[in-house]
Amino acid sequence: MALLSRALPVAPGITLWPAALAPEAQAVLLRDMLERLEQAPFYRPTMPRTGKAFSVEQSNFGALGWISDQAGYRYEPCHPVTGLPWPAIPPLLLTLWDEAVGSHAKPECCLVNLYRPGARMGLHQDRDEAALDAPVLSLSLGDDALFRIGGTTRRGASQSLRLKSGDLLAFGGPARLAFHGVDRIISAGSSRLIPGGGRLNLTLRRVTPAQEQPGGAKKDARPGG
Ligand SMILES: O=C(O)CCC(=O)C(=O)O
């Protein structure tokens, strides 16, 4: 697997690896994910307070899943509809994490966003994690997306990146709290990967702080980690 050979610096703390995952590897990952998603089907989250439904559907892999409902944004160990624990994170994603951000402890959450045509995600910060020292790593599969990322203030300058299937993006350090979102999906057949069309985004995050190891590596603080 030709992983992470071409890193493009986008801005301080933001790195893009175009075509990090070749089409065959994308198809293998998708098959693995679809099996796991049978245990954790997509559902449509709602906004805190207003209860308005998201335009994306979501699920999670990992010990902790990110959810949103009228009680707020938070991490939970179980699916809000089935009550079952989230399936484990696919090993290929853990390999990508190790290659891209290896010195950090493993991610505990892989949020899976499904964008059918017309879905989008407003500008926001990822700030529900106690481990803000670890970057966020995000893989795109399926149709192209116009992804927007700026600075740490909502109204500051931002740039638009066209993310394609197989692209990997990391933002951490000075960009860990960068505002970002998805303006739109280019759904005119930019990819045929996803059954039914659209885009999948896999966002890996470390949620709880890791223990510092001699030599600077970060180790999982959870039992068995
Ligand atoms: O779909 C994407 O590329 C971004 C997803 C995202 O920003 C999030 O889940 O917080």
Question: Topology of this structure?
Answer:
Blueprint: E1 8-11, E2 14-17, H1 23-39, E3 57-61, E4 65-69, E5 72-76, H2 91-101, E6 109-115, E7 121-124, E8 136-142, E9 144-150, E10 158-163, E11 168-171, E12 180-186, E13 199-205, E14 211-212, E15 218-219
Antiparallel strand pairs: 1-2, 2-11, 3-6, 4-5, 6-13, 7-12, 8-11, 8-13, 9-10, 9-12, 14-15
2-oxoglutaric acid is lined by residues 111, 113, 121, 126, 138, 145, 147, 180, 182, 201, 203.
* The CATH topology: Jelly Rolls
> Low-confidence segments, ≥5 residues, pLDDT <50?
none
Small molecules (ligands, ions, cofactors) in the structure: 2-oxoglutaric acid
Amount of helix: 10-25%
CATH architectural designation: Sandwich
Order of helices and strands: EEHEEEHEEEEEEEEEE
CATH superfamily, please? Alpha-ketoglutarate-dependent dioxygenase AlkB-like
What does the overall shape look like? globular
Q: Major beta sheet, specifics?
A: 7 strands, antiparallel
The number of helices is 2
- Major sheet strand order: 1-2-11-8-13-6-3
Please tally the β strands and state the result. 15
